[in-house]
Write a structure and sequence with these properties.
Bound molecules: flavin-adenine dinucleotide
Radius of gyration: 22 Å
CATH architecture of the largest domain: 2-Layer Sandwich
Order of helices and strands: EEEEHEHHEEEEHEEEHEHEHEHEHEEHH
Helix content: 25-40%
Structural class: alpha+beta
CATH topology of the largest domain: Uridine Diphospho-n-acetylenolpyruvylglucosamine Reductase, domain 3
Number of helices: 11
Strand content: 15-25%
Largest sheet: 7 strands, antiparallel
Strand order of the largest sheet: 15-12-14-13-17-18-16
Number of strands: 18
């Protein structure tokens, strides 16, 4: 790197926006940095960047601990998760990867090492200063954009008035430094859980159920304990998702408007009351309880997670079979605009006649609409529809990427969301840390922004 060769960091390449695809230069594989250890007492995992998420999850579980980030696809690497600030279904209760990263060791584009511990380098007067391991101080100007009022957002570099330097690197998509090691906070494994995949004959009932479950769960988080319901995840499948998924899970009931997958943690003391509370809410909102699935055992829960994972996998297979590319949205809008954005999706997609599914993290007000074009003509129209969805999300005060990142595929949309001024502010951050612009070339913004 120190000789100025462009370097693109490759994790497990599960990212969906082309971030680890090189635009020239060298690819740096992290897969051999796969050693890790767990300090059970301190509840800290010390990991190499190439550790596979599934391996860490398994080892934490064996110690009676729990690493909450769950980006559905567990074959990704921890370094990739940090570089994309991965989130997923359980982010509803636990937040994204950022919340668990206590320390990172980074190699800068200059070849210098930098260790950042949470709380040690905080911005003042619009600048955050970092000091490399060989003693060089680098002052980075904090971007001044306002962050949209959404629960998840990975559209461009993170900023805050009192920005912690570690947070600048989390979610920077391989453009500011190569993350080689990290220390991650772990939690105590929940004692028990109650989970369900619940089907609804009517969409309005499903949405009012989600509203009430979400509000009750957030109250729990705010009051730290007294309210009863406290979902760890609330996930959505629209009617088309159910029909697609029934190819793999024929037991899926037909004729339903949609389904919700939820998970509630329990203890022996709370289990009965929680089961009752969820059942009462489901009944109130007319869920088809007799055809729905519920469990309190790990084996069935694994099957429910498989059901959830099967959807994006089936979508990917379908588009490959169609010899087309998937067009998938990843925007989020403020809570108050969520229903109107869902209607926008449904109206524009129904009118298109193109096969589609809508699914995802409804607890966080963040859904994926995936278009599955069958012909070139449908693919072209799908891209236009995608553009209209981006415009609508921006107009509603949302963001263009809630969890997948910008990579190379979505940078035009980031430009539409942020505008020239703020892209230039991000480029200034990049130039301070990577003066020759060699890391993650083409990710987040076009190289033209990097000319000094
Ligand atoms: C079926 C499916 C479902 C998914 N669902 C979700 C979801 O619910 N939520 C979610 O957040 N994501 C989801 N993803 C996306 C993906 O799993 C994440 O983006 C993942 O965090 C990327 O990790 P990776 O190791 O595969 O990184 P890669 O894809 O290899 O790289 C991603 C980016 O990070 C950079 N990078 C990788 N490692 C490092 C490092 N050590 N240092 C610096 N930069 C690095 C790369 O240059 C690239 O820009 C899903 C993907 C699939 C295939």
């Amino acid at each position: 790197m120190a000789n100025g060769t462009a370097v693109t960091v490759s994790g497990a390449r599960t990212g969906t926006v082309g971030g680890s695809i090189p635009f020239g230069g060298t690819i740096l594989s992290m897969e051999r940095l796969n050693a890790f250890s767990i300090d059970r007492e301190a509840r800290i995992a010390s990991v190499g960047a190439g550790v596979i998420l599934a391996d860490l999850q398994k080892a934490a579980d064996a110690e009676g601990l729990f690493y909450p980030p769950d980006p559905t696809e567990w074959s990704c690497q921890i370094g990739g998760n940090i570089a994309t600030n991965a989130s997923g279904s359980r982010s509803f209760k636990y937040g994204a990867t950022r919340n668990y990263v206590q320390e990172i060791r980074v190699v800068l584009a200059t070849g210098e090492f930098l260790t950042l511990r949470r709380g040690e380098a905080i911005a003042t007067d619009g600048f955050v200063n970092v000091v490399t391991e060989n003693g060089r101080e680098i002052a980075v100007r904090v971007p001044t954009y306002e962050r949209p009022d959404v629960r998840k957002n990975v559209s461009g570099y993170f900023n805050a008035d009192e920005l912690d330097a570690i947070d600048l690197f989390i979610g920077s998509e391989g453009t500011l430094g190569v993350i080689v090691e990290a220390k991650l906070a772990l939690l105590k494994k929940p004692e028990g859980f109650f989970s369900g995949i619940v089907f609804f004959p009517r969409e309005n009932d499903l949405l009012s159920f989600v509203n009430e479950a979400r509000t009750a769960s957030r109250k729990q988080a705010e009051t730290n304990g007294n309210a009863r319901m406290d979902a760890a995840l609330i996930e959505y499948f629209d009617r088309n998702s159910l029909s697609l998924i029934s190819e793999r899970f024929p037991e899926t009931p037909s004729g339903m408007a949609g389904a919700i997958f939820f998970e509630q943690e329990t203890t022996p003391a709370t289990e009965d009351a929680l089961l009752e509370a969820w059942n009462a809410l489901l009944e109130k909102h007319n869920a088809a309880q007799e055809t729905s699935w519920f469990t309190t055992n790990e084996q069935d829960l694994a099957k429910m997670r498989e059901f959830r994972h099967a959807l994006p996998v089936t979508v990917n297979e379908r588009v490959v079979r169609n010899k087309q590319k998937k067009i998938g949205t990843d925007m989020a809008v403020p809570d108050a605009k969520f229903e109107s954005f869902l209607r926008f999706y449904e109206n524009i997609l129904d009118a298109s006649g193109i096969e589609y599914v809508i699914f995802g993290h409804i607890g966080d007000g963040h859904l994926h609409a995936n278009l599955l074009p069958k012909t070139e003509e449908e693919a072209t129209r799908s891209r236009h529809i995608y553009g209209r969805c981006v415009a609508q999300a921006i107009m509603l005060g949302g963001c263009v990427s809630a969890e997948h990142g910008i990579g190379k595929l979505k940078r035009h949309y980031l430009a539409a969301m942020k505008g020239e001024r703020y892209l230039n502010e991000m480029a200034e951050v990049k130039r301070a840390l990577d003066p020759k612009g060699i890391l993650g070339r083409g990710n987040v913004f076009a190289e033209s922004y990097l000319a000094a």
